Structures are given as structure tokens and as C-alpha cells.
């Protein structure tokens, strides 16, 4: 795993070194989030929440760029008895391929750092952060459209790749899944 992370950092550094144009931006939007449990018959419903943060886009060519982001993301799920709230600081590294003027297809890995985990039921809120892993890995894919004014719109899905539960004795694996709709502005 460390070799893979090192390889990504080296490739990113080399790509950024060749960047022709660098733009900074901000973005915010709505999350349609859920947790998916394998080996469980419990059906969880998704929650509607939010995300916000900053972006930096390094243009490598007219059709390709790398866009690291730093986002605060509220995630989780709901069932009939409780609400699970998971808040992360996410760092996606997005490769953007421009298929036409302003329109891009996006994909890339993401690492998330758990900030808060709590469960709400019967007007009570209980901190359960110790029951979750502090790091979550995911993979993003989606599309975005950027206007000449700097205003941009994006739709993205983050597929959770790692088990977020910190109990290795359980047969159940729980992973995040988040669909994001964003509005942003680049400077």
C-alpha cells in the first residue's frame, strides 16, 4: 500500500511540475450519502447532507488536468431507529479529461479522515468515533462543466473501497457511498 501511495505522489509531482496553468477554486453542494453493509440484511436509507471546500487545478494540456481537493463532507445513513452521522475531511485527487470546451470526465482516488462519528436516536446523540476507522479510502468518478466566467457544476459518485468499521471480528463490512452535486467557482 505504501508503494502505491508513493507511486501516486511521484506521478502527481511530475504532472504538477509540467502544469501549464494553475487555477484555485471553491466548491459546495449536496451529498446523497449511504453506508453499505455486506453480510447484513439490514436495509439502511441514505441521508441528504452537504460538502464544501477548496480545489486547485493543474492543467497539463488543453484536454487533461489534475485537480486535488480538500473537502469537508457530512455522510452517513438512516434506519427506522437511528441516524448515523459520519463527518470526514476528504482529499480526492481527480484526473480531468476535457471531452469538449468546459465539459470534463473525472476520476481519481480519495482518502478521507474521520472527524466525527455519532449516532442519534430518541433525541440523544452518542459519540461512536472509537468504533470506526480513522481513515477511509474511496474512488471517485463523474463529470463537470466549467463556464468561462469560472462558475462550474459537477456530479460525482464516491465508491467506498475500505471497511469503515474498526472491529475486525465482524463478518460484516461497511463501506461509504456518496453521490455529490456541486457548484463551484474558480479564480
What are the salient characteristics of this protein?
1 helix, 9 strands
Write the layout of secondary structure elements.
Blueprint: H1 2-17, E1 21-38, E2 47-59, E3 64-78, E4 83-100, E5 103-121, E6 124-127, E7 135-146, E8 151-160, E9 173-186
Antiparallel strand pairs: 1-2, 1-9, 2-3, 3-4, 4-5, 5-6, 5-7, 7-8, 8-9
Average pLDDT metric: 90
Based on the structure, what is the oligomeric state of the protein chains? single chain
Number of distinct helices: 1
**What letter string, H or E per element, gives the SSE order?**
HEEEEEEEEE
What integer value in Å does the Rg equal? 18 Å
Strand arrangement within the widest β-sheet reads 1-2-3-4-5-7-8-9
Helix share bin: under 10%
What is the general shape?
Answer: elongated
Strand content: over 45%
The main sheet comes to: 8 strands, antiparallel, barrel
Q: What is the structure about, briefly put?
A:
The protein is mostly beta strands. The protein has one helix at 2-17; strands spanning 21-38, 47-59, 64-78, 83-100, 103-121, 124-127, 135-146, 151-160, 173-186.
Structure description:
The protein has one helix and nine strands. It is mostly beta strands.
Amino acid at each position: 500500500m505504501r508503494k502505491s501511495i508513493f507511486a501516486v505522489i511521484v506521478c502527481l509531482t511530475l504532472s504538477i511540475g509540467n502544469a501549464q496553468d494553475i487555477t484555485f477554486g471553491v466548491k459546495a453542494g449536496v451529498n446523497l450519502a449511504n453506508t453499505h453493509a455486506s453480510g447484513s440484511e439490514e436495509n439502511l436509507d441514505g441521508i441528504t447532507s452537504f460538502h464544501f471546500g477548496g480545489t486547485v487545478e493543474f492543467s497539463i494540456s488543453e484536454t487533461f488536468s489534475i485537480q486535488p481537493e480538500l473537502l469537508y463532507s457530512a455522510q452517513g445513513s438512516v434506519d427506522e431507529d437511528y441516524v448515523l452521522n459520519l463527518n470526514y475531511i476528504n482529499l480526492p485527487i481527480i484526473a480531468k479529461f476535457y471531452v469538449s470546451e468546459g465539459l470534463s470526465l473525472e476520476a481519481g482516488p480519495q482518502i478521507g479522515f474521520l472527524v466525527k462519528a455519532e449516532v442519534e436516536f430518541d433525541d440523544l446523540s452518542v459519540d461512536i468515533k472509537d468504533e470506526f476507522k480513522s481513515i477511509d479510502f474511496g474512488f471517485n468518478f463523474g463529470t463537470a462543466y466549467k463556464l468561462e466566467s469560472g462558475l462550474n457544476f459537477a456530479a460525482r459518485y464516491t465508491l467506498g473501497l475500505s471497511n469503515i468499521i474498526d472491529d475486525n471480528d465482524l463478518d460484516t463490512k461497511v463501506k461509504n457511498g456518496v453521490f455529490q452535486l456541486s457548484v463551484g467557482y474558480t479564480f
